Amino acid sequence: xxxxxxxxxEVIRIAKEFGADLAGIASAxxxxxxxxxxxxxxxxxxxxxxxxSVVVLALRVPVATFRTKEPEAYQMxxxxxxxxxxxxxxxVSEALERRGYFGLVMNNNSTDWELKxxxxxxxxLRHLAVEAGMGxxxxxxxxxxxEYGPRVNLGVVVTDAExxxxxxxxEQLCIGEGCSRCLYACPTDAVLHFHIDKRQCSIEAQTTxxxxxxxxxxxxxxxxxxxxxxxxxxxxxxxxxxxxxRVWGCFGTCPRxxxxxxxxxxxxxxxxxxxxxxxxxxxxxxxxxxxxxxTRQQGDAVPGxxxxxxxxxxxxxxxxxxxxxxxxxxxxELNAKSEEPSS
Length: 343
Ligand code: B12
Ligand code: SF4
Ligand code: SF4
Fold this sequence. Notes:
Layout: H1 8-17, E1 22-27, H2 28-33, H3 44-47, E2 53-60, H4 72-98, E3 103-105, H5 125-131, E4 136-137, E5 143-144, E6 152-159, H6 181-185, H7 198-205, H8 210-222, H9 225-232, H10 235-246, H11 256-259, H12 265-271, H13 283-297, H14 310-313, H15 321-339
Antiparallel strand pairs: 1-2, 2-6, 3-6, 4-5
The structure holds cobalamin and iron/sulfur cluster (2 copies).
Cobalamin (B12) is lined by residues 36-37, 42, 82, 108-109, 111, 119-121, 123-126, 140-143, 150, 152-154, 194-196, 198, 201-202, 205-206, 252-255, 257-258, 303-304, 309, 312.
């Protein structure tokens, strides 16, 4: 047992009191031993050699966001949630300091130029959440938990407090290739086999993100005056301006893979009906899901499920146990609600 006088349960309670929907603890040495991609290690020891534990915070994305026809609400809410996570993280950091420890709040959406040309964060928050025992990674590597499926954003506080870490789940929460709903819904075919095509995803998920902005500058610099005038009058420029001034469209602009994922109490309660049909489904996408299913059944090599990566997907595979427990809990809650006296 760690000898800190501060327990994980206390820290988790504090985080929830400050507004986190879920919280967990990961061990810094374990994170250093198991960096998600060994070529570019995203480890707490790079932040500070004194790191002992990492507090992981999660805020759910309200379901209403996935019941609108246009993605604007999701874009807005994503920005708000990440800022709210920053505030909760700061409060957790202050609470840790009051107890004699430090709490280093990390930016929850920036990337590090030193790590794979600026495509990886200083830490990989999804992997931290898995290490903290809060859930597992899905087919398109979204982090998912029993309560809200993949509809959560994450924040992080690195600390020198030695806290008991959560136990990573060994059961895969993602239903897997037999479901493939995220793959069917993805407008840019970015969902791979427990992996993601980041360039393709960015087209929809970062409409005014780095690649979009760089592309706009490139066009302006290399165009003749007529073409420049055209660019100045185009919607591209408006989007870029909105991205800069309203932090809108820079990231988190595509709700599709998260909206349709059937894992999560929130899905059963509020999304099963509106998200049942996936209009983007095509025969090609169905065939791709079927191909992934066969590949896995035959035991063929899948990089996303290799000996290293399977750790975060769930080494026991999908057994349905977590889903059954979830449905039972959901039914009990529904029954309890219906038995409540009406006022
Ligand atoms: C860069 C980034 C992106 C990039 C790249 C995503 C990525 N997978 O890395 C893009 C623009 C594509 C993106 C999109 C989205 N993102 Co984003 N993103 C980040 C960011 C800033 C860093 C991610 C990172 O460091 N990844 C680390 C690498 C190691 O992970 P990886 O590339 O997935 O590698 C693993 C697998 O792919 C697998 N693998 C499988 N096959 C192979 C093959 C090879 C050769 C290799 C090397 C690996 C590999 O192995 C690796 C280890 O497990 C984080 C914030 C943070 N600091 O964590 C947010 C973050 C991950 N994003 C988030 C969100 C909300 C999204 C979107 C849902 C937003 C949206 N809808 O518009 C989408 C979802 C797309 C998806 N299915 O992944 C949330 C996570 C929410 C969740 N529940 O998972 C985060 C944590 C932000 C936050 N604070 O909440 N994101
Ligand atoms: S965020 Fe959109 S584009 Fe990216 S993987 Fe999910 S569905 Fe595809
Ligand atoms: S939609 Fe299905 S396949 Fe995709 S992450 Fe969710 S459970 Fe897994």
